[in-house]
Amino acid sequence: MAFDDRKDILRKSSHIHYQLLSGAILLFSAILLLGNHELMVMGHQELLVMGQNTTTEAEEFKVGVVIDANTSVAKVWLTCMDMALSEFYASHKTYKRRLVLHVMDSKSDILDASSAALDLIQNVKVQAIIGPTTSAQAVYIAHLGKRYQVPIISFSATSPSISLFQNPYFIRTSINESAQVNSIAAIVEKFGWREVVPLYEDTEYGHGVIPYLMDAFQNINARVPYRSVFSSGATDDQIIQELHKLDKMQTRVLILHMVSPLGIRILEKANLLGMMSKGYAWIITSGLATELSSFGPSVINTMQGVLGITPYISKSKEVAAFEARWKIKKQYPNSERKLDILGIWAYDTQTNARMVLSQIGPQLLQELSNTRFEGLSGAFHLVDRQLQSDAFQILNICGTGLRDIGIWKPSNGTYKLNLCPIIWPGDVMEIPKGWEIPTNEKKLRIGVPEKDGFNEFVRTTKNSSSDSRYDVTGYCIDVFNAAIKKLPYDVPHEFIPFNKSKSGRAGSYYDELVYQVQAQGFDVVVGDVTITANRSKYVDFTLPYNEGGVSMIVLVKKDMSKDTWVFLKPLELKLWVTTGAFFIIIGAVIWILEHRVNREFRGGPHSMYQWGTMLSFSFSMLVFAHKERVLSNLGRFVMGIWLFVVLILTQSYTANLASMLTIQRSEPTYNDVNELIRHGYNVGYQEGSFVFGMLKRMGFDESNLKSYNSPREFDEAFLKGSSGGGIVAAFEELPFIELLLAEYCDKYMMVGEIYSNDGFGFVFPKGSPLCPDISRTILSTREEGRTEQLKKGWFKSKKSCADHKDPYGSSNSLTLSSFWILFLITGICSALALIVFLTVFIYENKQILVDPSTTTRNKVLNLLRKFCEHDENRLITYFEHCNDQNKAVDNRVHAAEISMDTGYSPPPIHDSPVVAEGVTACDDNSNTELGNYTTLRADYDIGSGNDDTRADVGNSSP
To answer: Which sequence ranges are marked TM in the entry (predicted)?
Structure first.
């Protein structure tokens, strides 16, 4: 026999080994009648004779068996059957009905199996049939059982594609393969894997479970991007070719659903190709996992880190005792085949039956349909002709054996799966993330929009060193790069511009760009792509990385309303503060310079009088209304400089205020969308944007929709107006509105409702495992404020329009930078005047400093006292000087009166008042008053007729 044929027989027989015995032994116990009959148990060698007739007095009950008879697994099954029957009849010696098996070889062929079953039913007249081996054979034999009302007990047809409803005489005494799919989905969900690839054989067994796997993965939102199908007779080259295809994909979670030897061959080749290394996750279903105990060390070594799913049976002393008896009883001591779970099920089924059956097919079927008892395996339960399982065991292949890492039960749910630490492929404890970017393949292809304007978001330029490469920059690109750098793994990628000429109808450019991801033209799309409900039907978006929404932009118009605080607007706050500070500083400097020589800057009725004098003098200079005269030269020098600065400030303030009061407040030209629609006005939108479709849904006629590509085209469209083929309003997304208002904040304003959307997002294929990872890093980047920093970096050249609605805003105010040189000159001059004053003061009072009898502290205090004292040599005011002159005149007039009355002439009065240095005589007003006074006196004297006196008085005038 050829090597491949022997391997194929081994595959079939090994599968029988796990599931044949339960069905066979169940039937044996089911056909036994509880009564006074004696049942004859045939020996092991007799059971191997097909169709053998035994002449005894005992009543025969004929049962057909369709199986690959010439295999080692058949001997395993017959051994377990012999043990079960022997032990059963040892405790039930009164039974007289004899069970006779008629075994026929199916020869691993569907037609041979069907022919054998038909021969057993028509010629041998069997009451039931055990088998056949495969699900494909069972489909045909089940139809024969239905037609002839003969129960077909399947020990290996585990495929869920065989309908129990359509085949009422079909009994499955093994676990349905679909029962394990939820446990597999629980593992996938626990580790957060978003993509899985099933590998299965191209048979009824392989195809039957796939729909159930798809449903289970869909329930946990896991995607199946590819299905890998292997022919049962696949060559090594075909296996390697298919595995190479899998290795080039991103998905690293592989579900292997097949039996040996095909499953073993695939795992061996995967190990040779490096697909049993770090990053991979392999799960084998029960068809292969239940055979693990029979595999040799060389096979186990190729499966390191693999997870297996098997029906769960608790270990007990009874199970251990049965296994010991089985090893003694088996007829093939040199075989590597071991007792497994289905052998235990077979024993339980045979030795614990409690059914009374007749030889009639329907009655036999009824008794077999609902069987339940406790045995070595625990609860052995048939419900509607199907064996039930309460739990599945999860195994981890490690070293030379198996590790039990957990149990999944249907009641647990997918979120409550508790597993022990797992050693994954590559001998690592790190959980595989489930996908990888193949390092030996091309980079991730990232499509970006090719824009004519709004290049702050995306800018594409040809690389000077290569005609085929592009340099791609912009805010959106920076956000993507910042997010992808936060991933714990490397993602090689390249940016590819999407040509605008590929866009067909109006407003479809970005839709076409997104469609390229679904069509696999790009792996990802990065740019100013808005998240919409329609687009999300075909692709997945990351979390948005900026504010979303659409609103209307219109031109502004003016009104005549005024601002209550408009008088403060001509100067910015810093200029107001600086000016006020210098008023106080200049007042203090003048006071210091005038304090010792000018009585109006000394003393008063209250201690705070001089503070008021200083402040009132300083601030009254704003309108040139100060009443205090500055007498010192240094004071006049400082005041002259400051009056010049004040003149410039007041003139500038007046001019700017007058300009502001003539500016009208901004108001929108249009603020009602319905008005635009009703009058058929043209409105604008950015070319290629989804806004085009939104405007059509709002009721705008397509002929009234005008596109633009850049801020310049936007502004030109408004200048043309609706009558000139331009627009009167535009609808744009909020990020673009921010740019437009920054460019033209004195011309346009945003009005009306904000139509919400989710903002910009990056585009990935449906179910992409990279999408949720990027979303998490985007969220982290936004929380750190990184996205806002990137925006400021790209938009830093744009002036802020946060207060563009205020016609008197700080953007129109005079700033400190316009006058800083004047304040600097004033400060320097004031400082120089103070230095000169202090130098002269200290020089004049140097004897205080050189006095050796006083301490330094006392010297400083004495200088301060001296500073506070008045200067006897210079202290005088303008009015004191005038009063002294007036007093002298009064004395001379009084003397003249005495001379006229008495004839006595008093000595001359010398009026020589002390005049302060640099102070002139009284002004014209004082002289006029004095002249008036003497004139009145002369008129009085003339009235008395004394001419001499009038002459004297007249001569007394200065």
So the answer is: 16-35, 575-593, 637-655, 819-843
